[in-house]
Amino acid sequence: MPTLNYSVAVSGLGGNIAQNIPRSADGGSIREVSLPVGKAGTLTTRTDVNTGEITMASGSHGITTGANVDIYWNGGVQYNATVGTVVGTAVPFDGGEGNDLPTNGTDVVVSVRQLITLDLDGDSLALLAINQKYGNNLATAISHITFYDSGPNEIAELDLQANTPQVFDIVGGATNIFTGNPIVNVFASNGSTSDVAVLQLLWLQDSTP
Fold first, then answer.
1. Residue range 57-63: average pLDDT?
2. pTM of the model as a whole
């Protein structure tokens, strides 16, 4: 039976709390996927809360017609937007979810979503750890991850802080936000324009909970 161990340590004010916590289950798996940097631009047309056009900072931005992207700005992220017909540095988009778009003139980062395939049944999940890891320890960019079933149904979505693991210890009493249809497709993107990220996923699940 596979086991994962995670540690909690808090110190300061003259006190110290440290604990190693083992969790075991019938099975589990791991994914590590490199996420390329996003591309800088400016929101120059805001048609409505999830429709607009971005003028990219460089003509070599690489964002193509029909791409599925996440859009980041200081204080928000809109995910799962579809790019319209790209002309030079003009990148129109529509249909995003999440935060409403900011005002015209806001600097943004456009990041193409990367697909990761999983076989994860949230209903039997024991523990899931997620980390957006940068080689640069001073990186501060947020990133985004969305979990789907085998079709278009969204199971869960999360913002990820740079180099800050999130652990969902379901066995230990954490709220399970991954229940529903089994998770098959995960889309993730990198909110940084300078640092490539590595998305790390590590989980345990019981086949007969």
1. 95
2. 0.93
